[in-house]
Amino acid sequence: MSLAAGFYGLRWYGNQQVSADRDTEFVIVPGDSLGRVVRRLSTDQLIQYPEVFEVFARMKGVAAGLHAGEYLISPDITYRQLLNKFAEGDVRYYSATLVEGWTLKELLQDLNNHPKLLSPIEPASVSLALGKYVQGVPEIDNLEGLFYADTYSFEAGTTVESILKRAHNRLQSVLTEEWGQRAKGLPYKAPYDALIMASIIEKETGVPSERPDIAGVFVRRLEKRMRLQTDPTVIYGMGDRYEGELNRRMLRERTAYNTYVIHGLPPTPIAAVGREAIRAALNPSDGKTLYFVARGDG
């Protein structure tokens, strides 16, 4: 009789809701024991009768299966559901968005300022930190454009380096996939050349649907050995010296990125890109135009 009463008592206990009047963050640190977690839950006044909670947790077999991480505990969750959350590792996720057209400097600034990402990386040391993960890239000292523009979900405590590694791996995957579906006869020696072109297309694009047309103009200019003559490359080559306005002197200045001066592509991408810019670079619109046509709607 007493065993049955105890069983039903624990069952009743497991269906009780946590003592919270709003969503509450709770962190399980790597290496935390069940007892330590129960004590913190009690200290935070999230549970009643902590001794019973620990017995209930052991009875459910959760003691050895607690997943570390940051959890969001809602007021309507029961003790049973809370333990299931801990056992399944249903941790809270955050997100960071790498925007198409961002430079590596802008991208790092945003990631370094994210309150839930650890271990900031300064622009000057990014090649040292991530160069060993990057393969098949001529300009290993400049990792510009090698991180795929997308939104990345992560747990609290994730490092900036971890996000960048994921973004680079994603870029390599998309670039390889799109390279395999490229149009014939393009003036690229390798996928990296297409990535450089994609970054120029991205910076020149005002309306997303225009990417293939912009790509068509640039590809035809390359084929005819005409200079690309695109302002974003000039701006990138000037770095911090650019203050918001180009003049003729700047367009004549010889830098590795000034496509008014050099022939062909600049040595590296000039910004982060997504799939659509890569696809446009590899499947440009057909036509004969060699210049952009100004339109009244921008």
Automatic annotation (TrEMBL):
Pfam families the record matches: YceG (PF02618)
Protein keywords: Cell membrane, Cell wall biogenesis/degradation, Lyase, Membrane, Transmembrane, Transmembrane helix
CDD domains: MltG_like (cd08010)
GO MF, one example: lyase activity
Domain of life: Eukaryota
HAMAP family linked: MltG (MF_02065)
PANTHER family cross-referenced by the UniProt entry: ENDOLYTIC MUREIN TRANSGLYCOSYLASE
Protein name (Swiss-Prot/TrEMBL): Endolytic transglycosylase MltG
